[in-house]
Each structure stands twice: as C-alpha cells, then as structure tokens.
C-alpha cells in the first residue's frame, strides 16, 4: 500500500526546548529532524517532508513567521502532501491557528500541535502529540475542515480553541461547543464539524495594522483607550465585562475611538457571546452598539483581534469589516455562528 505523504514543519516552542546545564531554564534548540527522531513509527507509515521554519518560543512569533509557515504548508500540499503538521509553542496557539485558518485556502488539513512539557521533563507529551497530529493531517475525514489544533488526543477548530490553563496537560478547551473529535488508537473520530468560510486573501501591502486589545477592569476610566487612539492605532478590540459591558466612564471614550477606526466588542469571560439588547445602561452592550461598536459575537477578544487585523491588512472597507465580523462571530440576530 502506498504510504501517504506528510509535511512536518517547526516554528519552535516548548516541544523543541532543552537546557545546556542542570537547573537552567529551557530554550528552543531542537530541529524538526530531532523531533521526528522521537517518533520512529511515523517514518514507517508516511513519506515525510520536513522543514525547520524558525526556532522561537510561542510568545515571540510574529505575523511574518506565520505567513512564512502558511506559504510552506501551501507549497507542501500543492506538491502532493496529504496534509501538513506545524509544530509551535502553545502560548499563542489559539491566536496563530486562527490567523492561519482565516487565510488557509486548501482542502488538505493544516494541523498545529505542540507540547506542555519539554523533552527533558518526565512524561514529555511532544512525541505523542506529533503522532496524533499526523494521524489527523492524513485522515481523509479531516479534509475541508481548515486549520485544526491537535493536542492531548483531541482535535479542536481554530476558531474555537482557547488555552485555559498555564501548565496542565489538558490546557486547551473549546468552550462552549467542545472539541471536534478525538484520536483513539491512531484513528480520528469527529463528533461535530465547524462552519467553513471563504478564506481571506493574504495581505499583500506593506502596511502592518496596529490593533489594540484592551480588557475591561474595575475602575477603568478610559485613559488607556484614549492613549491608544492618540497613538494612531488602526482598530481596537474591547474585551469587555460579562455580556459586553464597560464602565460608564469608558463609554464616551468609545465614541471618540470609533471616529479613528473600527472598535469590536467581545467578552472577557472566554465563554459565551456578547448580547445586543438585554441591558440598556451607559456602557452596556445596547449603548455601545448604538455608538457604532461592532459585536464580535462568540469570538473572544484574542480571536476578534486576529480577525480585525487580517481584515485591515487586506484593505477591507468598514462596511465589509462589519459584515465579516457579524458573520464569523455569529452575533445573536446576525448570520450563522462560527
């Protein structure tokens, strides 16, 4: 039987980290070849194409790094790979996976994975996660699902996944709808499938948008939001209290911010959608929407920022931004949820 072709690339992260001396903190050092040496079964079941794209912690990845990885994955599947696996740090995986998903325009799956424990720790999870991600990337049932994240034997949609624990092996969750599937004995079983949207074009211009993500907090008087506007940011995402609320003192500053660029409203809770017409006090969702804020629906603040950045980077007019955010966020009363 012909073995499937699989592309595996690495950007770095905990899964690649070792230390030069006992007691020293770990840093990225392993190549993709080093990682695959710990998964010997993979070489026997697939034809491998490999590339070490970067060697950075997840916190230091840039938009440029991600678009380089996107181009690599596109080229790999266009050359015959059944799918691509991209290894990276887990710190930013909920954001990077969504950015890639917005722009992934192939039927073959692009699967992200990483590790919560470095190779030197007891019970390191990197090899198992690579093996599971490879099974997902080569499974025919994964086609058409866009960018996926496979970790701890679960498969998550890029639009839903969230890192919810700093160190636990089951750090990732997809609340409230749950993961898409699980890997059992090397086979992937899907329980639900995400809505797929037409991919956004890759940004081609030299302009790199600046989009601020501001979280509401007790006693916020709007000073930070005003400073962001004065600094010339292209857009703002408000990660607001509860169902989409900010202090009354911030509401008037929001009106000023909208004059400078789009302002998206998300919930800081990490679970659930912002509302549209339940509360009517100053700083409520009803008040903010009347001022021109765009509701992010089910998207949390981090996803909403990535979406707004991508739309601005591709030159979308304000009317189109409003339409795409409403659709992909699945705001109550709007188009389908993501």
TrEMBL record:
<dbReference type="InterPro" id="IPR006034">
    <property type="entry name" value="Asparaginase/glutaminase-like"/>
</dbReference>
<dbReference type="Pfam" id="PF00710">
    <property type="entry name" value="Asparaginase"/>
</dbReference>
<keyword id="KW-0378">Hydrolase</keyword>
<feature type="domain" description="L-asparaginase N-terminal">
    <location>
        <begin position="8"/>
        <end position="194"/>
    </location>
</feature>
<dbReference type="InterPro" id="IPR037152">
    <property type="entry name" value="L-asparaginase_N_sf"/>
</dbReference>
<feature type="domain" description="Asparaginase/glutaminase C-terminal">
    <location>
        <begin position="210"/>
        <end position="324"/>
    </location>
</feature>
<dbReference type="Pfam" id="PF17763">
    <property type="entry name" value="Asparaginase_C"/>
</dbReference>
<dbReference type="InterPro" id="IPR004550">
    <property type="entry name" value="AsnASE_II"/>
</dbReference>
<dbReference type="InterPro" id="IPR027474">
    <property type="entry name" value="L-asparaginase_N"/>
</dbReference>
<dbReference type="InterPro" id="IPR036152">
    <property type="entry name" value="Asp/glu_Ase-like_sf"/>
</dbReference>
<protein>
    <submittedName>
        <fullName>Asparaginase</fullName>
    </submittedName>
</protein>
<comment type="similarity">
    <text>Belongs to the asparaginase 1 family.</text>
</comment>
<dbReference type="InterPro" id="IPR027473">
    <property type="entry name" value="L-asparaginase_C"/>
</dbReference>
<dbReference type="InterPro" id="IPR040919">
    <property type="entry name" value="Asparaginase_C"/>
</dbReference>
